[in-house]
Amino acid sequence: MPKVYMLCVEDEPDVLDSVVRDLEVLEDLFPVEAAADAVEARNLLEEIHDRGDEVGVIFCDHIMPGESGVDLLVALRQDPRFAYTRKVLLTGQAGLEAMVKAVNEARLAHYVSKPWEAGELVWVAKAQMTLYYQERDLNPWPVLSGLDVEDLEDLMARHEADGVTD
Asked: Is the dihedral of CA 73, 62, 117, 104 positive or negative?
């Protein structure tokens, strides 16, 4: 069974450290990778994919040097390998035009405004990973503690009926 990763893309080192630190509580279930810009993110995405693993959620800043976060998320939506990846914009500076593009073209799953509340990223990560597991019809049993169990009853029942609970 492939590992399902979370990817954090943020150009400010202190903010990136904070995002990764907030998500560490889920790292045993969903490894967390970090990138400082879109180029580094694309390299990590390729590495993860080449290993046969998946990226379930990407947390991405909008304003970055080079390619913007919204443009990166739009490109990922158009790449069949990452079409199911849940896209979360993590920013305090996205204007209306960028938000419309993110929603319409990247199928933005969630928006988190900076600064965020403690625990908010974990809640968002669990909710988005739950949706990812449902959309991909992945077996939730091995990572159940990292998912929103109330939203998984049908998926759990299907995999339990198949005799696959680990």
From this structure: negative
